[in-house]
Amino acid sequence: MSAASELSLGGRYLMGPGPSDVHPRVLKAMATPLVGHMDPKFIEIMDGVKEMLRGLFRTKNDLTFAVSATGSAGMETCFVNLLEPGDEAVVCVNGVFGNRMCDNVERCGAKLVRVDAAWGEPIEPAQVKEALGKCKPKLVAIVHAETSTGVLQPLEEISGMVHDAGALFLVDTVTSLGGTDVRVDEWGIDAVYSGTQKCLSCPPGLSPVSFSGRAVKVMEQRKTKVQSWYLDLSMVRKYWEGNKRVYHHTAPVSMIYALYEALRLIFEEGLDERFGRHRRNHELLREGLEEMGFEFLVRPEYRLPMLNAVKIPAGVEDAAVRQQLLERYNIEIGAGLGEFAGKVWRIGLMGCSCTENHVNMLLAALRQIMK
Amino acid sequence: MSAASELSLGGRYLMGPGPSDVHPRVLKAMATPLVGHMDPKFIEIMDGVKEMLRGLFRTKNDLTFAVSATGSAGMETCFVNLLEPGDEAVVCVNGVFGNRMCDNVERCGAKLVRVDAAWGEPIEPAQVKEALGKCKPKLVAIVHAETSTGVLQPLEEISGMVHDAGALFLVDTVTSLGGTDVRVDEWGIDAVYSGTQKCLSCPPGLSPVSFSGRAVKVMEQRKTKVQSWYLDLSMVRKYWEGNKRVYHHTAPVSMIYALYEALRLIFEEGLDERFGRHRRNHELLREGLEEMGFEFLVRPEYRLPMLNAVKIPAGVEDAAVRQQLLERYNIEIGAGLGEFAGKVWRIGLMGCSCTENHVNMLLAALRQIMK
């Protein structure tokens, strides 16, 4: 067969729901020659990743590492390891990713209890309380940062109710981690997953996760095998933990390099400074968009700084504007998902894509296209 | 927390069971700035990957792409999409990876029929025939290149029997693809998976797969949902196929770049030339090792060129020699797995690690250590 043409890419400004722009040092890390996945030098890198992830999740959890696949596999890892057929699980749904959690629960053969809120609204603690009065779930799952709507979900009050009911608290932080505070221990989170391609500004391909001692105990008391071989933590953790590492699958070495470097950059910047940067640039974007007549989907107090969902104004063609942004300005923004397809844009300000320059470029381009 | 130390790695010669050395052009591809996973430019790269994978698998199968996780997830993808609870499956076992397949079958709730051969020996067609006389399986699974033992499994005769019995033929080509011939259409393979980090000389993180029309029909006629959300091909294929690509999960963009470049290098070299190179360097290694008194585990006619399993001579300390190779010479070779732990070494000659220089370096180092 004839050879495919040369790889000639790049030059985009990634302001959608992820991937975000990646720092040159992380790109360079990806190009580092490989060592073996059982090499003592690689084990050191894994240990560094675990330690820095603990810092980022603000947890002391031993079982903190990165699943060898993207964020959705991190979600699946949490559900398949914690649920067994016949278990009951409450899932809070106010967007695409809550729905995805429901699908996971059902594929585990567990009984699903849904708590629904309108898309664009947070889940109210009273709704969770009501659900907990009617069932005895093994876990309650909720999305901290709904990437499909831009809602930031308050967690502490709900966490208390979940623990009072004797259930585990499972939280999706795919879009929040690295861009706003995530306090696993303080907020009583038992299982948490994230993705690398959002506010960590690392390429997609890994899912950071962390499990409390209570969650680990639940896994250790399972009566059935985890339905996924690849994601079975009873085996995976023997590779990530302990003095003698046991081969399970071949770790994605280069992706772990990239995550290591992305985490170093985060701690060089400092968590508080980083979260402040996300808030400041969100305000800058908000002001500019509101001046142009855009309305945000979400009420101010529940808005995510890194994922800005705005209603597409009447008379503005969704696909045509996004295409011009991409082709003329090399700027990617996100389309609406699910019931918001064609109705909202999702503008990401994540990690390295969260700068004043990004905001200024996008606002100027939008003004030129929409004038 | 204090920042972790700078990433300072590389310099190893990877002559174990994978990962193998990665070509500088592939490392450079990994460092390419990212575009979005729905970007038209990225869809072109995906299409190029599909086309080149078809060339490498020697197939016309539409459903040919790369699963967004390592080879073991490719294995799981095949089993969870093709099997439903209550189905029957025959698995041929002559090493670690056959056993892993059995574990997958059981996690699918399917009935397992094992065909066992001694480790280091191939499966005999007569054994498969006997098994097929006693059951009515939906599929028969076998490993083309057993990475734990170095056995190359002849497939054509067994394939005929499997099809006569009305079953699908599922083959593991993790270690063979890109290093020796894999003829999916000619050999009647219905489902096949591989890994990127062996003879493709691409970093670990993706699993190339291909499915025949018969396999796709079986998937389309399922009565139950696939137990894995992440690996459910009824959704994944809508992202990889068709005119309108539907978001499923965020593709590992940089890994796809790397695979694209690794495949380009393979077709620039040419398949026959590449397979010939693997055979020639295998012979060179064999001569050198036999001169030093090493014995191969596998009979000559069933030996893999890219994975050379040799018995550790009496009086030679397994771990101590491998440690010296790694620390003094920066050469990684593989330890024995499973029942061969401490008894064999597995020397890889895969992709970019398959050169005369690699062979010469290893032989010289072994002579110096063992003199």
Description:
2 copies of one chain form a homodimer. The first copy, chain A, has 371 residues and is α/β, with parallel strands linked by helices. Chain A folds into 2 domains: 13-18 and 271-370, Alpha-Beta Complex (Aspartate Aminotransferase, domain 1); 24-267, Type I PLP-dependent aspartate aminotransferase-like (Major domain) (Aspartate Aminotransferase, domain 2, 3-Layer(aba) Sandwich), CATH 3.40.640.10. Chain A contains 12 helices and 13 strands. Chain A has helices at 24-30, 40-57, 71-82, 96-107, 125-134, 156-164, 213-220, 233-240, 253-269, 271-291, 318-329, 356-370, and strands at residues 13-15, 63-67, 88-93, 111-116, 139-143, 145-146, 151-152, 168-172, 191-193, 207-211, 307-311, 331-335, 344-348. The N and C termini of chain A lie far apart (48 Å). The interface between A and B is large, with 81 and 81 residues.
Beginning-to-end CA distance, first to last residue of chain A: 48 Å
The parts of chain A where pLDDT drops under 50 for at least 5 residues are none
Order the strands across the largest sheet of chain A as they lie in space.
Answer: 2-10-9-8-5-3-4
Percent of residues of chain A in helical segments? 40-55%
How many E strands of chain A? 13
Q: What kind of oligomer do you see?
A: homodimer
The helix count of chain A comes to 12
Order of helices and strands of chain A: EHHEHEHEHEEEHEEEHHHHEHEEH
Please report the two chains with the greatest interface, counting residues with C-beta closer than 8 angstroms to the partner's C-beta.
A-B, 81 and 81 residues
In round numbers, the mean pLDDT of chain A is 97
Shape of chain A: globular
How many discrete structural domains of chain A? 2
Radius of gyration of chain A: 21 Å
State the CATH class of the largest domain in chain A. Alpha Beta
Provide the CATH superfamily of the largest domain in chain A: Type I PLP-dependent aspartate aminotransferase-like (Major domain)
Annotated CATH architecture of the largest domain in chain A: 3-Layer(aba) Sandwich
| CATH topology tier name of the largest domain in chain A | Aspartate Aminotransferase, domain 2
Helix/strand structural class of chain A? alpha/beta
Largest sheet of chain A, if any? Answer: 7 strands, mixed
- Give the percentage of residues in beta strands of chain A: 15-25%
